[in-house]
């Protein structure tokens, strides 16, 4: 029996290793091609750089010069960080209220937010862009509130499931000690939500950092984020600087990969707790 279990464990290990390789391979290919000359990228994209194809940091220098990467990096960082903070702050409080106040009103809010997750963006993008322009939200600050609206559904869903698993006795004890609802939330409830907070933050950070369509529609060329800046490496009539494109893709994924690896231990714990409780 033990031998059979060991064989199954080995089989699962091999399968998961192969699956991990499938997901990692595209990133490694992009990283490898970022150090190769443009001609060799299209001619032999799956080979490693050698003495003939290696161009050092030339692609990175060209990419930084052509895209205005540092400006785009600042805009992307500002929008992503602020949007994630706003989403976590407001949706966690909304989820706590929905979980603790059970009535028709809170149920309607909850189901409306959950329903918003299945509405395709293409259905609302035209009217959204018109309303955004009319309300002067077509700027890096205004788009934060747009992301709050789009990210609220999934975030409230995960937060609500997690909060439903927190015993009411913990909050009742805080109330007996004289804590106000606001103090109770920030001193007792919110610290207990750390795993799901980090999970929600990671999911929204990866989405917002890599989002192209929403910034392109709402803030356009005036406030270029990294996906928009990278897109401009593709010129007219199909011409593109593949070397600079690969180099900028590598630089663009580094921050979110570092953030993910730093907080990854909370992801599964938070998703499972937020999805099955309540």
What does this structure look like?
With 278 residues, the chain is mainly alpha-helical. The protein has one domain: MetI-like fold (Orthogonal Bundle). Helix content is 76%, strand content 0%. It is built from 14 helices and no strands. It has helices spanning 2-33, 38-43, 58-67, 69-100, 104-116, 121-134, 142-163, 168-176, 181-192, 194-210, 213-218, 226-231, 242-263, 267-276. α10 packs across α14 (267-276). The longest helix is centred in the N-terminal third of the chain and has 32 residues, at 2-33. Residues 274-278 have low confidence and may be disordered.
Remind me, CATH topology? MetI-like fold
Largest sheet: none
Cα distance, first to last residue? 38 Å
Supply the number of structural domains.
1
**CATH architecture level-2 label:** Orthogonal Bundle
List keywords for this structure.
single chain, 278 residues, mainly alpha, MetI-like fold, 14 helices, 0% strand
SSE topology sketch:
Blueprint lengths: L1 H32 L4 H6 L14 H10 L1 H32 L3 H13 L4 H14 L7 H22 L4 H9 L4 H12 L1 H17 L2 H6 L7 H6 L10 H22 L3 H10 L2
At a glance:
With 278 residues, the protein is mainly α. The protein contains 14 helices and no strands.
């Amino acid at each position: 029996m033990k031998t059979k279990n060991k064989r199954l464990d080995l089989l699962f290990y091999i399968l998961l290793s192969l699956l991990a390789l499938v997901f990692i391979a595209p990133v490694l290919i992009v990283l490898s091609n970022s150090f190769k000359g443009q001609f060799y990228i299209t001619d032999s994209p799956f080979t490693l750089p050698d003495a003939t194809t290696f161009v050092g940091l030339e692609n990175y220098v060209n990419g930084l010069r052509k895209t205005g990467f540092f400006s785009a990096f600042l805009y992307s960082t500002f929008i992503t960080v602020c949007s994630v903070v706003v989403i976590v702050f407001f949706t966690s409080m909304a989820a706590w209220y929905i979980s603790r106040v059970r009535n028709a009103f809170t149920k309607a809010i909850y189901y409306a937010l959950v329903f918003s997750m299945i509405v395709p963006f293409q259905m609302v993008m035209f009217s959204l862009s018109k309303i955004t322009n009319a309300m002067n939200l077509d700027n890096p600050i205004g788009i934060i509130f747009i992301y709050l609206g789009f990210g609220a559904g999934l975030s409230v869903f995960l937060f609500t499931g997690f909060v439903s698993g927190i015993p009411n006795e913990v909050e009742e004890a805080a109330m007996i000690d004289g804590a106000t609802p606001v103090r109770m939330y920030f001193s007792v409830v919110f610290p207990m939500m750390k795993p799901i907070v980090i999970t929600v933050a990671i999911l929204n950070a990866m989405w917002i950092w890599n989002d192209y369509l929403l910034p392109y529609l709402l803030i356009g060329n005036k406030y270029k984020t990294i996906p928009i800046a990278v897109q401009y490496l593709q010129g007219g009539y199909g011409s593109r600087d593949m070397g600079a494109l690969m180099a900028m893709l590598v630089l663009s994924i580094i921050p979110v990969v570092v953030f993910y690896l730093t907080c990854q231990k909370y992801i599964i714990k938070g998703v499972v707790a937020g999805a099955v409780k309540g």
